[in-house]
Amino acid sequence: CVLCGRTDDCPEKYGEKKTFVEYNVTVHYYCLLMSSGIWQRGEEDEGVDGFLFADISKEVKRAAKLKCNICKKKGASIGCSIPKCKRSYHFPCGVQKECLFQFMEDFRSYCWEHKPVQKIPDKECKGSSQCTICLDLVEQLPLYSVLRSPCCKNAWFHRECLQYQALSAGMFFFRCTVCNNMDKFQKEMLRMGIHIPEKDASWELEENAYQELLQCYQHCDTERCLCKKGRDYNEPDSKWEIKRCQCCGSRGTHLACSSLKSWEQNWDCMECRSIFAKSGNYSKQKKRSLATSNKTNGASCLLEEPSPKCPRQSPGTQHSFLLQSPKRMCQNNSNLELPASNRMAMALSPMMSNRKRSLRKRHLVKERREASNILKALKLQITTKTTRLNINAENIWNSALKGFRQRSFGPTNTIEISFTNCKNRLKRRTAASKHHFFQLLMLHLQNSSLFEGSSAKNLSLDFQAVRDNLYFEAGKMIAVSLVHGGPSPGFFSKTLFNCLVYGPENVKPTLEDVADVDVGETIKMIKYANSLSNLKTAIHDCYEFLAAAGCLRPVTELSDKNMLVDDILNYHVIKRIILPLESFRPCLKTLGVLEKMQAHPDEFSSILCHKPERLSAETLCDLFTIRSSSDVNQVGGADFWMVYLKDVESGESAVTLEDILLFATGSLSIPPVGFDPEPTVKFLRIRYPVGNRLLNCLELPITKTYEAFKKKMEFTIRNVLRVERE
After folding, report:
1. What is 382-611's CATH number, 3.20.20, 2.60.40, 3.40.50, 3.90.1750?
2. Kind of pairing, strands 146-148 and 156-158?
3. Which end of the chain is more exposed for a tag (fewer CB within 10 A), N or C?
4. pLDDT(636) > 50
């Protein structure tokens, strides 16, 4: 090694040993990381992991003048980080002398005299206990070779055991072996000199490690198999293809043996049906409803969007007498007045104090942060296997539907998007394409006939969509978008969210959930009837509607209207759309999203029922990590960046904060799962800003004045985004 002079090849102690014959350089990775006079000035694929060969040569010359305080030989490239301490040493010598090296932030090193130690009260240092990794005895003393868990007082480890565990588990799986705490545990171990590499766990990288989990069940379990070639015969894309149970996956059937028309049609085995029947969640009329719905005219095309001025009626109003306009039935009550108290309550909207609003906002931000951590854990399921989707932005729904239904598509596959322009048949595939695709897809779903309502939406009743299994596909798209880095829907009503999390039988809808104006008027006439005679008149005028909905009940006093209103709301908001809900809810289990929603309802409500928070200068400042050298700080590049964000936020710029985020990452908002890799800002000696969307990196020019910096930012961002839009 050109830095320590040793020939040892021990990756666990000194890091990977790399040799570059062309440059006559051999170096230990840890020796390079810890050297005091060198830093990464290149990209990851340049030099030795970003350390340029010219810089390595300079560092070798600098270290040649320094004598190691341990072995007394020249070439000591590492110095103690305490300013008053002048000790220098080689990395292997430092390890031998029990110096401490921190593999984080500025990669500081401390000599044997100034190294940080764990503060442990004397009363807790008693005897010995088992190391929870190797299970050998370890002394409960604050020694260099012994470390204590910061989250479990009785958990002690050998330093060597922890280092081997960290190298094997990597940053995403290294945690306390007793309580599974990750954040607090990793922070303390990094402080105490444990190197935690930013990589996946070794057992996740082993080829074919989970091969047995990929074996699919291939057997027809119907009582009478019609296939002449036997129950194990499976011919894809034919009626003898085997379809597995959508719930348990451990039972199968030939399509022909269960009269399934296509592979996309759902099928439940008898065991799962009996479980659902006992729990009350399985509808025996499901198949009959689907069959009879074939006689019904199709709903309006899914691509057709409602008028922005007129509230849309439920799609089901075109198909069933149950939803005939009750406004016509109740014409005689059109002049019915509301009680004065109710009119006043409706007229006066509650004013929330600034303090309460601020607390609520902070609480929402905290919940979104928790939801982001949960989604990041789910994202670990995504493999390197790639599925490419060819998307036509002018027909986003049909092209997305085709892509999600193709046989090669898997939710755990890495998704690549190619946008197709039908006019000139050109394709473009960029790092921002996936963000843009999911944004267009979520926007289309929000305005599609699958949902109804203004801002907070519930599922609608679209018989054609039920027949085509579109609710199932929509739910899968939302789950995939959340985990793969797309935006969240943000338009779910609280009622719809509660139906998904707690089940429809445990949800009580409100009048705000009724999207159909005519049905809403009927409910109001009954709810605000101020006398028994007015109530009976209102019921009489919409008698046929109530009878068809199964909501007729004898009324003997005015208070009976409350139960009647509850019945109508329950029918219109929940029972009427039970078929779409039964199709939409199970598909959210894709990638484990529904299970996490049920375990963390508050966190997921913050992203599914609320639009993303508006970007602020503070948000972008926290989002982008500044990577710069000391000469940039002298010029003031970081200060220019922060002042510019404040100017943009206050409207003193021609661009918006959303434009800056789009320029750097290709996304207009921060996705719930966050960005991968995390956004960074680099100050370089370049003429104009560069948005590297592949790395989410914003490369900014070093200028002498703020005016020049602002002028270059606005000129570049405006023109780049204008060209992209064109």
Report:
1. 3.90.1750
2. antiparallel
3. C
4. yes
Considering Cα of 618, then 619, then 620, then 625, what sign does the dihedral take?
positive
pLDDT tens string 426-451: 455 555 688 889 999 999 999 999 99
Residue type, 448: S
Radius of gyration of the chain (CA): 32
pLDDT-derived band at 362, boundaries 50, 70, 90: confident
Tokens 């104006």 correspond to 517
* Per-residue burial over 660-695, b = 16 or more CB atoms within 10 Å of its CB, e = otherwise: bbbbbbbbbbbbbbbbeeebbbbbeeeeebbbebeb
Condensed to tens digits (0 to 9), the pLDDT of residues 156-194 reads: 999 999 999 999 999 889 999 988 899 999 999 999 999
112-140 mean pLDDT: 87
Whether residue 151 contacts residue 176, with contact meaning beta carbons closer than 8 Å, is answered with yes
433-446 helix and 470-483 helix, angle to the nearest 10 degrees? 140
What is the average pLDDT value for the chain, to the nearest integer?
Answer: 83
The helix/strand count (H/E) of the chain reads as 29, 21
Mean pLDDT of 708-723: 92
How far is 664 from 647, CA to CA, in rounded Å? 18
Task: For tokens 């020939």, name the residue.
Answer: 7
In this structure, what are the phi and psi dihedrals at residue 151, rounded to the nearest 5 degrees? -105, -20
**In the structure encoding, which two tokens stand for residue 581, read together?**
């809900």
For domain 617-725, the CATH superfamily is Hect, E3 ligase catalytic domain (3.30.2410.10)
For the beta sheet containing 414-421, the strands, ordered from the edge strand earlier in sequence to the opposite edge, are 386-391, 414-421, 426-428
Q: 485: burial class by Cβ within 10 Å (0-12, 13-18, 19+)?
A: buried
611 contacts 456 by C-beta, under 8 angstroms: no
Q: Two tokens at 16?
A: 């990977």
Angstrom distance (rounded) from CA 101 to CA 115: 9
Helix (H, G, I), strand (E, B) or coil at 578: helix
What's the one-letter identity of residue 655? V
Task: Report cis status (omega within 30 of 0) of the bond before 677.
Answer: yes
pLDDT in tens, 525-555: 999 999 988 888 888 888 888 888 888 888 8
How many Cβ atoms from other residues are within 10 Å of residue 168's Cβ? Answer: 13
Question: Taking a C-beta distance cutoff of 8 angstroms, is the pair 229, 203 a contact?
Answer: no
Domain ranges of the chain: 17-110, 128-204, 382-611, 617-725
Distance from first CA to last CA of the chain, Å, rounded? 54
The answer, yes or no, to whether residue 208 has pLDDT greater than 80, is no
Enumerate the H helices of 407-559 as residue ranges.
433-446, 463-467, 470-483, 494-502, 517-527, 532-541, 543-549
In this structure, the dihedral spanned by the alpha carbons of residues 171, 172, 177 and 182, taken in order and rounded to 10 degrees, is: 80
**Is the CB of residue 297 less than 8 Å from the CB of residue 318?**
yes
Query: Where are the extended beta strands (E) located within 358-438?
Result: 386-391, 414-421, 426-428
Count Cβ atoms below 10 Å from residue 551 Cβ, excluding itself: 21
What's residue 110's pLDDT? 94
Compute the distance between CA of residue 450 and CA of residue 465 in angstroms, rounded to an integer: 7
Same fold, 382-611 and 617-725: no
Question: With respect to CATH, is domain 17-110 assigned 3.40.50.720?
Answer: no
C-alpha span between 557 and 531 (Å, rounded): 9
14-35 per-position pLDDT tens digit: 998 988 888 888 999 999 999 9
Between the CA of residue 606 and those of 374, 494, 612, 670, what are the distances in Å?
A: 13, 10, 9, 14
Strand partners, 27: 18
